[in-house]
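Fold it.
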Amino acid sequence: MTPSVTSNILEGVTRSTLLSLFPEALGLAVEQRQIDRTELYTADEAFFTGTAAEVTPILSIDRRPVGDGTMGPLTAKVRDAYFRAVRDGSAPHPEWRRPVWV
């Protein structure tokens, strides 16, 4: 699940990419809604997304470990699907990638 864009979050390109990749590459549905703080405390996994962060696991929230305090298997799958899409081109949507000639 992820906060909706009405929750004062940035409607970013990385987030949009992952919202497409979840059902397409991972076969998972994404629920967009308000997330209560207590849900974060009991989450098995959590991660940040962003241009610089890409897909970065959140290992603790308010000094409480998320899951077992390490990157979880879903976060690893999400990160790998994202890297395939934007780095090696083995995922769908080649239109997302453009060569940059310097």
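The chain has one domain: 5-90.
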